[in-house]
Amino acid sequence: MLIINRGLYKLAMKIDGASNMSKFVTNQNIEIDLEIASLGERILAFFIDAIIIFFLLMAVSITVSNMNLDAWIIGIIVLPFMFYSLLFEYLGNGQSLGKRAMNIRVVKLDGTTPTLSSYLLRWLFRLIDIYVLYGGVSVISIIVTENGQRIGDLAAGTIVIKVPSVDMGNVLKSPAKPGHVVTFPIVKQLNDQQIELMKKALEMRRQGFNKEGVTNLAEKLKAKFQIDTELPDVKFLYTIIADYEHIANQEF
User: Fold this and answer.
1) According to the model, what pLDDT value does residue 90 have?
2) Chain mean pLDDT for the chain
3) Spans of all domains in the chain
4) Dihedral, CA of residue 151, residue 156, residue 159 and residue 163, to nearest 10
């Protein structure tokens, strides 16, 4: 009975959209907090996409109905609708139109943007996830897995997270000011990818769902390069970024 009650509680949490923060580790061994999208949000996003596809197909049907086209030509015209979720998620940074409306997004387990192969694998499993038992397999998988993953997510190593309306692709920019004095010369040992990670960690913290990630990142940098500073973690990372961009601009 206790197991059943826990299962029902977990189902209620996922349906009503209650906060479900999970920790994930990036390739740089940095922990980040991501809020998993609820089951209800994912279902609504699916139906929004389904409605969009329905009306688009209706429009196409009305347009070609009087054209006397061959069946194979009509098939070619309709074919792109089969790839709707794949195309929109890949081109839309993890968001179909339905997901964008619900402010949820597909990402890798480390919070990064999935590759085309990940999106493709996720899309291929839709047949099992969604169309077998009318979505029952997908719902059960989302409920029972820790990170709310359907089978396609498990295969592709992806999750669906809640994101603010702010575009996560527009990462924080902090160009060094003219006359900037470098505080930490060790930034010469860093690379663009590491600086990009810092920018994203700071941006996620600003949006309110990655505060621990900034602290962990700052601590690892201080330990790795034996930096002794009284600067707060956020200010420290801002300074590291400004130093790096200042030196990069000089070298360029």
Assistant:
1) 93
2) 79
3) 2-49+81-162, 185-247
4) -140
Mean per-residue pLDDT, 12-35: 56
HEC string for the chain? CHHHHHHHHHHHHHHHCCCCEEEEECCCCCEEEEEECCHHHHHHHHHHHHHHHHHHHHHHHHHHCCCCCCHHHHHHHHHHHHCHHHHHHHHCCCCCHHHHHCCEEEEECCCCCCCHHHHHHHHHCHHHHHHHHHHHHHHHHHHHCCCCCCHHHHHHCEEEEECCCCCCCCCCCCCCCCCCCCCCHHHHHCCHHHHHHHHHHHHHHHCCCCHHHHHHHHHHHHHHHCCCCCCCHHHHHHHHHHHHHHHHHHHC
- Residue that has been written with the tokens 């009975």 in this structure: 1
**pLDDT tens track for 142-188:** 999 989 999 999 999 999 998 754 343 443 444 556 678 889 988 88
Q: What does pTM read for this prediction?
A: 0.60
Separation of alpha carbons 206 and 181, rounded Å: 25
Angle formed by the axes of helices 84-91 and 71-82, to 10°?
Answer: 50
**215-244 per-position pLDDT tens digit:** 888 888 898 888 999 999 989 999 999 888
Q: Which two tokens stand for residue 19?
A: 């906060």
